[in-house]
Amino acid sequence: MEAKDILVALSLKYEGDYEKMLSDIRKKVPLTKEEKERGQRETKSMVVSIVDSDYPSCFRSCYQPPLLLYYYGNLSLLEKPYRLTAIGTRHPSVYQSETCYSLLSQAEERMKDRIIVVSGMAIGLDQQCMLAAMDRGAPVVSVIGSGIDKPFPSENQGLYEYCKSGKGLVLSEYPIDCSAKPENFLFRNRLLAGISNVLFVGGGKSHSGTSVTVRYALEEGKDVLALPCNIGGDDLTNSLIKDGASPVLDTQDILEALFSAYGIDEEMKRVLSTSKKSA
To answer: What is the pLDDT of residues 130-175, one digit of tens each?
Structure first.
Protein backbone atom coordinates (compact mmCIF):
# COMPACT_ATOMS: atom_id res chain seq x y z
CA MET A 1 0.00 0.00 0.00
CA GLU A 2 1.07 3.58 -0.62
CA ALA A 3 1.58 5.85 2.38
CA LYS A 4 -1.60 7.81 1.60
CA ASP A 5 -3.69 4.62 1.49
CA ILE A 6 -2.31 3.61 4.89
CA LEU A 7 -3.23 7.03 6.33
CA VAL A 8 -6.76 6.76 4.91
CA ALA A 9 -7.17 3.30 6.43
CA LEU A 10 -5.95 4.54 9.82
CA SER A 11 -8.18 7.61 9.60
CA LEU A 12 -11.26 5.45 9.07
CA LYS A 13 -10.17 3.02 11.78
CA TYR A 14 -9.85 5.79 14.38
CA GLU A 15 -12.34 8.36 12.97
CA GLY A 16 -9.50 10.79 12.28
CA ASP A 17 -8.06 10.71 15.82
CA TYR A 18 -4.60 12.22 15.33
CA GLU A 19 -2.89 10.67 18.36
CA LYS A 20 -4.20 7.15 17.73
CA MET A 21 -3.16 7.29 14.07
CA LEU A 22 0.29 8.54 15.01
CA SER A 23 0.64 5.83 17.66
CA ASP A 24 -0.10 3.04 15.17
CA ILE A 25 2.37 4.53 12.70
CA ARG A 26 5.14 4.70 15.30
CA LYS A 27 4.43 1.17 16.54
CA LYS A 28 4.05 -0.14 12.96
CA VAL A 29 0.76 -1.83 13.84
CA PRO A 30 -0.35 -3.91 10.82
CA LEU A 31 -3.67 -3.26 9.11
CA THR A 32 -6.17 -5.99 8.38
CA LYS A 33 -7.30 -6.69 4.82
CA GLU A 34 -10.73 -5.18 5.60
CA GLU A 35 -9.14 -2.01 7.01
CA LYS A 36 -7.03 -1.66 3.88
CA GLU A 37 -10.00 -2.04 1.54
CA ARG A 38 -12.45 0.11 3.49
CA GLY A 39 -10.78 3.41 2.61
CA GLN A 40 -11.04 2.87 -1.13
CA ARG A 41 -14.61 1.62 -0.78
CA GLU A 42 -16.08 4.34 1.43
CA THR A 43 -14.14 7.55 0.75
CA LYS A 44 -16.05 9.84 -1.64
CA SER A 45 -14.10 13.07 -1.25
CA MET A 46 -10.70 14.09 -2.49
CA VAL A 47 -7.81 13.35 -0.12
CA VAL A 48 -4.41 14.97 0.36
CA SER A 49 -1.82 13.60 2.76
CA ILE A 50 1.32 14.94 4.38
CA VAL A 51 3.45 12.84 2.01
CA ASP A 52 1.89 14.34 -1.15
CA SER A 53 3.54 17.02 -3.28
CA ASP A 54 0.32 19.07 -3.30
CA TYR A 55 0.01 19.07 0.49
CA PRO A 56 -0.79 22.71 1.41
CA SER A 57 2.39 24.56 2.38
CA CYS A 58 0.53 26.56 5.06
CA PHE A 59 0.16 23.41 7.17
CA ARG A 60 3.74 22.18 7.07
CA SER A 61 4.83 24.64 9.75
CA CYS A 62 1.68 24.62 11.89
CA TYR A 63 1.32 22.87 15.24
CA GLN A 64 0.77 19.14 14.67
CA PRO A 65 0.42 19.35 10.89
CA PRO A 66 -2.52 17.22 9.74
CA LEU A 67 -1.55 13.77 8.52
CA LEU A 68 -4.50 13.65 6.16
CA LEU A 69 -7.12 16.07 4.87
CA TYR A 70 -10.39 15.23 3.17
CA TYR A 71 -11.70 17.96 0.91
CA TYR A 72 -14.10 19.15 -1.76
CA GLY A 73 -13.57 22.20 -3.93
CA ASN A 74 -10.52 24.18 -4.95
CA LEU A 75 -7.45 23.16 -2.93
CA SER A 76 -5.29 25.73 -4.75
CA LEU A 77 -7.03 28.50 -2.77
CA LEU A 78 -4.67 27.63 0.10
CA GLU A 79 -1.71 28.80 -2.00
CA LYS A 80 -3.22 32.13 -3.06
CA PRO A 81 -2.65 35.51 -1.36
CA TYR A 82 -5.10 37.52 0.72
CA ARG A 83 -6.32 34.64 2.87
CA LEU A 84 -8.13 36.04 5.91
CA THR A 85 -9.31 33.86 8.77
CA ALA A 86 -12.43 35.48 10.23
CA ILE A 87 -13.92 34.02 13.39
CA GLY A 88 -15.98 34.89 16.45
CA THR A 89 -18.68 34.04 18.91
CA ARG A 90 -21.65 31.82 18.11
CA HIS A 91 -23.88 34.30 19.93
CA PRO A 92 -23.01 37.73 18.53
CA SER A 93 -24.77 40.99 19.25
CA VAL A 94 -26.57 42.71 16.39
CA TYR A 95 -23.66 45.18 16.27
CA GLN A 96 -21.07 42.41 15.95
CA SER A 97 -23.04 40.49 13.36
CA GLU A 98 -23.90 43.44 11.13
CA THR A 99 -20.48 45.08 11.45
CA CYS A 100 -18.53 41.92 10.55
CA TYR A 101 -20.73 41.30 7.52
CA SER A 102 -20.46 44.92 6.40
CA LEU A 103 -16.67 45.18 6.88
CA LEU A 104 -15.91 42.00 4.94
CA SER A 105 -18.41 42.75 2.20
CA GLN A 106 -16.86 46.20 1.72
CA ALA A 107 -13.34 44.74 1.81
CA GLU A 108 -14.27 42.23 -0.90
CA GLU A 109 -15.73 45.04 -2.99
CA ARG A 110 -12.56 47.12 -2.65
CA MET A 111 -10.36 44.15 -3.61
CA LYS A 112 -12.63 42.92 -6.41
CA ASP A 113 -13.56 39.77 -4.46
CA ARG A 114 -9.97 38.52 -4.13
CA ILE A 115 -10.03 38.07 -0.35
CA ILE A 116 -10.29 34.38 0.58
CA VAL A 117 -12.38 34.26 3.73
CA VAL A 118 -11.45 31.29 5.93
CA SER A 119 -13.66 30.21 8.82
CA GLY A 120 -15.13 27.28 10.71
CA MET A 121 -18.72 27.32 9.39
CA ALA A 122 -20.19 27.71 12.88
CA ILE A 123 -23.37 29.69 13.42
CA GLY A 124 -22.86 33.27 14.51
CA LEU A 125 -19.88 35.32 13.36
CA ASP A 126 -18.23 32.53 11.36
CA GLN A 127 -21.45 32.31 9.39
CA GLN A 128 -21.75 36.08 8.89
CA CYS A 129 -18.16 36.46 7.71
CA MET A 130 -18.49 33.61 5.25
CA LEU A 131 -21.82 34.88 3.95
CA ALA A 132 -20.28 38.31 3.32
CA ALA A 133 -17.93 36.66 0.83
CA MET A 134 -20.37 34.10 -0.54
CA ASP A 135 -23.04 36.69 -1.27
CA ARG A 136 -20.54 38.42 -3.57
CA GLY A 137 -19.34 35.21 -5.20
CA ALA A 138 -15.92 35.53 -3.54
CA PRO A 139 -13.88 32.49 -2.44
CA VAL A 140 -14.65 30.88 0.92
CA VAL A 141 -12.69 28.18 2.77
CA SER A 142 -14.30 26.23 5.59
CA VAL A 143 -12.50 23.90 7.99
CA ILE A 144 -15.05 21.71 9.74
CA GLY A 145 -14.75 19.55 12.86
CA SER A 146 -17.09 16.79 11.69
CA GLY A 147 -16.83 14.21 8.91
CA ILE A 148 -16.27 15.70 5.47
CA ASP A 149 -19.61 14.25 4.29
CA LYS A 150 -21.53 15.25 7.44
CA PRO A 151 -21.30 19.06 7.77
CA PHE A 152 -22.13 20.62 11.10
CA PRO A 153 -24.28 22.54 11.82
CA SER A 154 -26.97 21.58 9.32
CA GLU A 155 -28.17 25.22 9.25
CA ASN A 156 -25.13 26.07 7.13
CA GLN A 157 -25.74 23.50 4.41
CA GLY A 158 -25.80 26.31 1.84
CA LEU A 159 -22.32 27.47 2.88
CA TYR A 160 -21.10 23.87 2.76
CA GLU A 161 -22.39 23.41 -0.79
CA TYR A 162 -20.80 26.71 -1.84
CA CYS A 163 -17.46 25.65 -0.39
CA LYS A 164 -17.71 22.33 -2.24
CA SER A 165 -17.98 24.19 -5.51
CA GLY A 166 -15.08 25.51 -7.56
CA LYS A 167 -15.49 28.91 -5.87
CA GLY A 168 -14.69 27.52 -2.44
CA LEU A 169 -13.11 24.74 -0.43
CA VAL A 170 -14.22 22.63 2.50
CA LEU A 171 -11.64 20.70 4.54
CA SER A 172 -11.79 18.17 7.37
CA GLU A 173 -9.41 15.82 9.14
CA TYR A 174 -12.39 13.56 9.80
CA PRO A 175 -13.63 10.98 7.29
CA ILE A 176 -17.00 10.40 5.69
CA ASP A 177 -19.86 10.74 8.22
CA CYS A 178 -18.03 11.06 11.57
CA SER A 179 -20.13 12.89 14.13
CA ALA A 180 -19.12 16.30 15.45
CA LYS A 181 -17.22 16.07 18.75
CA PRO A 182 -16.36 19.12 20.90
CA GLU A 183 -12.69 18.15 21.10
CA ASN A 184 -12.47 17.94 17.31
CA PHE A 185 -13.49 21.58 16.94
CA LEU A 186 -10.85 22.78 19.39
CA PHE A 187 -8.18 20.71 17.60
CA ARG A 188 -9.45 21.99 14.24
CA ASN A 189 -8.77 25.57 15.33
CA ARG A 190 -5.02 25.18 14.81
CA LEU A 191 -5.77 24.78 11.11
CA LEU A 192 -7.88 27.95 11.00
CA ALA A 193 -4.89 29.80 12.46
CA GLY A 194 -2.43 28.07 10.14
CA ILE A 195 -4.15 28.79 6.83
CA SER A 196 -3.96 32.60 6.95
CA ASN A 197 -1.33 35.18 7.78
CA VAL A 198 -4.03 37.45 9.22
CA LEU A 199 -6.70 36.58 11.80
CA PHE A 200 -9.76 38.80 12.27
CA VAL A 201 -11.71 38.31 15.51
CA GLY A 202 -15.21 39.77 15.58
CA GLY A 203 -16.10 38.86 19.14
CA GLY A 204 -15.85 36.13 21.74
CA LYS A 205 -15.21 35.27 25.34
CA SER A 206 -11.85 35.13 27.09
CA HIS A 207 -12.13 31.35 27.48
CA SER A 208 -13.63 30.01 24.26
CA GLY A 209 -12.87 28.22 21.02
CA THR A 210 -12.17 31.61 19.48
CA SER A 211 -9.50 32.31 22.10
CA VAL A 212 -7.88 28.95 21.28
CA THR A 213 -7.56 29.95 17.62
CA VAL A 214 -6.07 33.29 18.67
CA ARG A 215 -3.49 31.50 20.80
CA TYR A 216 -2.42 29.31 17.88
CA ALA A 217 -2.16 32.37 15.62
CA LEU A 218 -0.05 34.31 18.10
CA GLU A 219 2.27 31.34 18.62
CA GLU A 220 2.85 31.27 14.86
CA GLY A 221 3.49 35.01 14.70
CA LYS A 222 0.34 35.81 12.72
CA ASP A 223 -1.22 39.29 12.64
CA VAL A 224 -4.32 39.52 14.82
CA LEU A 225 -7.08 42.07 14.19
CA ALA A 226 -9.98 42.66 16.56
CA LEU A 227 -13.32 44.46 16.37
CA PRO A 228 -13.75 46.80 19.37
CA CYS A 229 -16.86 46.02 21.38
CA ASN A 230 -18.79 47.32 24.36
CA ILE A 231 -16.45 47.68 27.33
CA GLY A 232 -18.88 45.98 29.69
CA GLY A 233 -18.66 42.24 30.35
CA ASP A 234 -16.23 39.55 29.24
CA ASP A 235 -15.21 40.37 25.68
CA LEU A 236 -12.13 38.85 24.08
CA THR A 237 -11.60 41.48 21.39
CA ASN A 238 -11.17 44.41 23.77
CA SER A 239 -8.64 42.37 25.75
CA LEU A 240 -6.77 41.53 22.55
CA ILE A 241 -6.59 45.20 21.58
CA LYS A 242 -5.34 46.09 25.05
CA ASP A 243 -2.62 43.45 24.64
CA GLY A 244 -1.49 44.76 21.24
CA ALA A 245 -3.87 43.44 18.57
CA SER A 246 -4.77 45.90 15.82
CA PRO A 247 -8.26 47.39 16.19
CA VAL A 248 -10.49 47.29 13.13
CA LEU A 249 -12.28 50.63 12.86
CA ASP A 250 -12.98 50.52 9.13
CA THR A 251 -12.41 48.45 6.00
CA GLN A 252 -9.05 50.06 5.34
CA ASP A 253 -7.66 48.48 8.52
CA ILE A 254 -8.35 45.01 7.08
CA LEU A 255 -6.87 45.88 3.68
CA GLU A 256 -3.69 47.30 5.17
CA ALA A 257 -3.18 44.18 7.28
CA LEU A 258 -3.60 41.95 4.22
CA PHE A 259 -1.20 44.02 2.12
CA SER A 260 1.34 44.02 4.94
CA ALA A 261 1.09 40.24 5.28
CA TYR A 262 0.98 39.25 1.62
CA GLY A 263 2.35 42.24 -0.29
CA ILE A 264 0.64 43.84 -3.28
CA ASP A 265 0.88 41.80 -6.48
CA GLU A 266 0.57 43.23 -9.97
CA GLU A 267 -3.09 42.32 -10.32
CA MET A 268 -3.92 44.04 -7.06
CA LYS A 269 -1.95 47.13 -8.12
CA ARG A 270 -4.22 47.34 -11.17
CA VAL A 271 -7.31 46.88 -9.00
CA LEU A 272 -6.25 49.65 -6.65
CA SER A 273 -5.33 51.92 -9.53
CA THR A 274 -8.73 51.40 -11.14
CA SER A 275 -10.48 52.06 -7.81
CA LYS A 276 -8.67 55.38 -7.38
CA LYS A 277 -9.57 56.50 -10.90
CA SER A 278 -13.23 55.56 -10.32
CA ALA A 279 -13.25 57.56 -7.07
So the answer is: 999 999 999 999 999 999 999 998 899 999 999 999 899 999 999 9
Segment 170-182 shows an average pLDDT of 93
Give residues with Cβ within 8 angstroms of 90, minimum separation 6. 122, 123, 124, 125, 126
Positive or negative: CA dihedral 6, 189, 160, 250: negative
Q: Would you state the pLDDT for residue 205? A: 87
CB–CB of 167/140 below 8 Å? yes
CB of 190 closer than 8 Å to CB of 89: no
SS (H, E, C) the chain: CCHHHHHHHHHHHCCCCHHHHHHHHHHCCCCCHHHHHHHHHHCCCEEEECCCCCCCHHHHCCCCCCCEEEEEECHHHHHCCCEEEEECCCCCCHHHHHHHHHHHHHHHHHCCCCCEEEECCCCCHHHHHHHHHHCCCCCEEEECCCCCCCCCCHHHHHHHHHHHCCCEEEEECCCCCCCCCHHHHHHHHHHHHHHCCEEEECCCCCCCHHHHHHHHHHHCCCEEEECCCCCCCCCHHHHHHHCCCEECCCHHHHHHHHHHHHCCCHHHHHHHHHHHHHC
ω into residue 153 within 30 of 0, thus cis?
yes
Is the pLDDT at 68 greater than 90, yes or no? yes
Which residues, 6 or more positions from 56, have their beta carbon under 8 angstroms from its beta carbon? 48, 69, 75, 78, 79, 195
